[in-house]
Design brief:
The chain has a domain at about 25-60. Helices cover about 60% and strands about 15% of the residues. The protein has one helix at about 20-65; strands at about 10, 15-20. β1 (about 10) and β2 form a beta hairpin.
Length: about 70
C-alpha cells in the first residue's frame, strides 16, 4: 500500500506477530467490520429469498391443485 508506515514483524517461537501503525490498524478494523456487515446482509437476503421461493412454490402447488379441472380418482 502506498504511504504505508513501517510494519514490524516480531517472531515468538513459531508465531510471527505484525505490528501496524495505529492509523493502518484502525483502517483494517473498519474494513473488517464493513465486510462483516455485508456478509450478514447477504446471509439475510439469501434467507429471505429462500423463504420467498418456498412460498411461491407452495402457492403454485396450491394453484395447480385448484385449476378448475375435474379431479380424476382412480
Amino acid at each position: 500500500m502506498a504511504g504505508r508506515g513501517e510494519v514490524q514483524r516480531i517472531r515468538i517461537g513459531e508465531e510471527v506477530l505484525v505490528v501496524l501503525p495505529e492509523r493502518e490498524y484502525e483502517a483494517l478494523l473498519a474494513n473488517r467490520r464493513q465486510v462483516g456487515g455485508c456478509t450478514a446482509r447477504v446471509r439475510a437476503l439469501q434467507h429471505a429469498l429462500a423463504e420467498a421461493l418456498s412460498r411461491l412454490a407452495a402457492a403454485e402447488g396450491a394453484g395447480a391443485a385448484d385449476d378448475g379441472a375435474p379431479d380424476v380418482a382412480q
